[in-house]
Structure formats: structure tokens, C-alpha cells
Inverse folding.
């Protein structure tokens, strides 16, 4: 679901110019009935789109971070993916479903990324000149998310009842990695180590077993 955010006219234009071509391109890739292979055609387009959206807000997004955003959100889309697999071999109808599914998923990922980047930009503006308070709040959130992640990892599984919490946690961890990566001191040893730790948690969460 698209998060309602207040974009400037310039930001809105930039976002639409990036999102729509990417959605159409992934839709075109999705109509090719080659099973899982179309995923390898779609994902690079989505990664490039996320990187470009970060640039629209003046935020540097590396390829690895973009992969995390795309992969993290994909964890909540297994239902649509299953529907796509079911219909992908049906002529015409299947292709239409594939096109719709690919474009819909791409646009959803895009607007979630836009919401992230917009929030990051707003927070940086809000806390300008108040770096110490901002860093303290960020550290508290980081510790909270780490503890949540460790609980999931310790259980080694995610139940259906916990799916919303799991997806939100992935979302929050990914956002924190994006924020850290967009900092001017992102290449410093301290920040790079934080990014590495959070990225490791994200990867471990993605590998958990899903149970009903």
C-alpha cells in the first residue's frame, strides 16, 4: 500500500519519471513465460529504480542496499508470486496476470522506498544542528530492532501470526541501513561496522523458515 507523503512538485515529477518506466520494463519482463528466469530480469530493474529514487532525494544508495530493500519487501509478496507461477503458462491470460503482477510489485516497492527516502530527508532537516540528540535516538532504535531480530533468529522460524511484525522489522532494519549509508561519514569504521551488523541481521531474517 502506498504511504501518503507530502512530496514537493519537483520530487513528485522525479519519482514518477523513475517509477513508471521501471514498472513497465518489469511488466514486459514478466510476460516471458520462462519460470524463475524472469526474476533475474526483473530484479536488476528494481534495484536500479531504487538507486535512482535515492538520488532523487539526494541520498546515496549502494547496490547492496538497494538489493536489501527489494529483497526485504519481496518477503511479504509470496502470495502474489505463487499466483504468478500458477498462471504463467496460460497463453494471453497468464501473460496479462504476469504483467500486472510485475508492475504492481515494482510500483509497491518503489513507493515504499520513496517513503523511506522522504522520511530520511525530513529527519535530517529536523535534526540539523542537533546531531547528538539524533544519534542517541537512532542508537536506541537500533538496539530495539536488534533485539527483535535476535528473537526471531533464535526461534529460527516465523509463524503466520507474526508475519506483520516480521515484515515491519525487515522494513525498519532496511531503513536504518539506508540512513547510515546516506551519512557523510558512511565510510568510517564505526558506521561501516554498524551497517555490516545490520545487513547481517537482515540476511539472517530472510533465511528464516515460514510456518503457518
Amino acid at each position: 500500500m502506498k504511504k501518503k507523503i507530502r512530496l514537493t512538485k519537483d520530487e513528485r515529477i522525479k519519482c514518477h519519471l523513475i517509477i513508471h518506466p521501471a514498472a513497465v520494463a518489469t511488466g514486459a519482463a514478466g510476460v516471458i513465460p520462462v519460470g524463475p528466469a524472469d526474476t533475474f530480469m526483473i530484479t536488476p530493474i528494481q534495484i536500479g529504480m531504487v538507486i535512482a529514487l535515492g538520488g532523487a532525494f539526494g541520498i546515496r544508495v549502494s547496490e547492496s542496499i538497494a538489493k536489501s530493500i527489494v529483497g526485504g519487501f519481496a518477503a511479504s509478496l509470496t502470495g502474489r508470486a505463487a499466483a504468478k507461477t500458477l498462471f504463467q503458462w496460460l497463453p494471453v491470460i497468464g501473460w496479462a496476470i504476469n504483467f500486472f503482477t510485475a508492475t504492481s510489485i515494482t510500483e509497491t516497492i518503489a513507493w515504499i522506498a520513496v517513503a523511506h527516502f522522504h522520511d530520511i530527508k525530513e529527519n535530517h532537516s529536523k535534526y540539523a544542528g542537533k546531531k547528538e540528540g539524533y544519534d542517541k535516538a537512532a542508537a536506541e532504535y537500533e538496539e530495539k530492532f536488534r533485539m527483535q531480530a535476535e528473537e526471531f533468529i533464535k526461534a529460527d522460524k516465523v509463524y503466520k501470526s507474526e508475519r506483520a511484525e516480521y515484515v515491519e522489522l525487515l522494513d525498519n532494519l532496511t531503513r536504518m541501513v539506508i540512513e547510515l549509508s546516506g551519512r557523510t561519514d558512511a565510510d568510517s569504521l564505526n558506521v561501516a561496522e554498524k551497517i555490516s551488523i545490520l545487513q547481517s541481521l537482515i540476511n539472517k531474517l530472510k533465511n528464516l523458515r515460514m510456518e503457518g
In short: Residues 78-95 have pLDDT under 50 and may be disordered. The radius of gyration is 18 Å.
